[in-house]
């Protein structure tokens, strides 16, 4: 079930991503895009409740990647 809280400026792009990935949920984060910065989230309430932990895990991975020496 997709939670339709109302379309945002990147909702159409999020729909494309979710459908192309054949996923039950998707989040698109855009920085300085055509319509400015923002995000769109399409997921069930249950997935939305799990999202903060997932985002913290992703942030930790990004932070860890930046602390590793570059191989280039």
Question: Looking at the structure, what is the overall shape?
Answer: globular
Task: State the end-to-end distance.
Answer: 44 Å
Low-confidence stretches: none
Helix fraction by DSSP (H/I, runs of at least 4): 40-55%
Give the topology string: H per helix, E per strand.
HEEH
What does the radius of gyration come to?
A: 14 Å
Query: Which strand order do you get reading across the main beta sheet?
Result: 1-2
Topology:
Layout: H1 11-20, E1 26-33, E2 36-42, H2 45-67
Summarize the structure.
Helix content is 46%, strand content 21%.
Task: Explain what this protein looks like in three dimensions.
This protein has 72 residues and is α+β, with helices and mostly antiparallel strands. The protein is 46% helix and 21% strand. The protein has one domain (11-67). It has 2 helices and 2 strands; from the N terminus they run αββα. The longest helix is centred in the last third of the chain and has 23 residues, at 45-67.
